[in-house]
Amino acid sequence: MITRFAPSPTGPLHLGHAFSAITAWRRAQEAGGTFLLRIEDLDQDRSKPEWDAQIFEDLAWLGLDWSRPVRRQSEHLSEYGQAIDRLAARGLVFPCSCTRGDIRAALSAPQEGALATGPDGLVYPGTCRGRSMESRRPGDALRLDIRKALATIPGALSFLEHGRLRQGQHDIDPDSLIEGTGDIVLSRRDGAVAYHLAVVHDDALQGVTEVVRGADLFDATPVQVLLQALLGLPTPDYDHHDLVRDDAGRRLAKRDDARAIATYRDDGLTPQDIRAKIALQFPEFSTKIR
Ligand code: GLU
Question: What SUPFAM superfamilies does the entry give (predicted)?
């Protein structure tokens, strides 16, 4: 069993992150397996060294340990680039110059109904889908042609979910992927590698057998399973856990500094207090560290 916690250093870790990290760490402990920490710092505008350092401090303070060296995605950009090249060589990738505004404008044409949103926001309307890789210009994003990609997959795609919210085997419906997710970005207009590609690449490379993460990423799983199949990578099991919420029932966001682990620590709370706070929302969550 290899599990991982894969935060992006774009803000302070909050209670939800603590829940996720402790859950992944425990899954590995219980199975005599390995727990990994991976820093997902592909977004160079939003990732900051101070948040990066604080992740290590917070997790160690919570009583967690992880196998080293820690993988930092920004140090492996060429590997992700090669994976995109492999997909492009098979004709599954197209360059795209559309801005967010262009996409919105194309989707708001009068004949369109309610706008479909997927794990990455608005579902791409396909404006640049006919373009060849030879027409790629600086500043173009690269997108996966999801229809073509699905057509290359001989069998059915599925994944096993352990999380109590949607426990069981999930068969992936190609039509829902086309309509609800669409031609995802693999590399952004600023050149940054997109999350889905890096996450499947790294989970496979690091031998992750169970992906423990928040239920907000459940809808991103089908397209990640598709990418695994396209790249010849194994599909891990998944454990999407409930989201920690604030008193008003809203899910916590990075901007929720008030519930940041570091804020609680500065206020004199102990790691045990943090676990007790999580257990208030999820009574089955044990407040013992092991
Ligand atoms: N890096 C992602 C985040 O911070 C999580 C990726 C994952 O767990 O698959 O939200």
Answer: Nucleotidylyl transferase
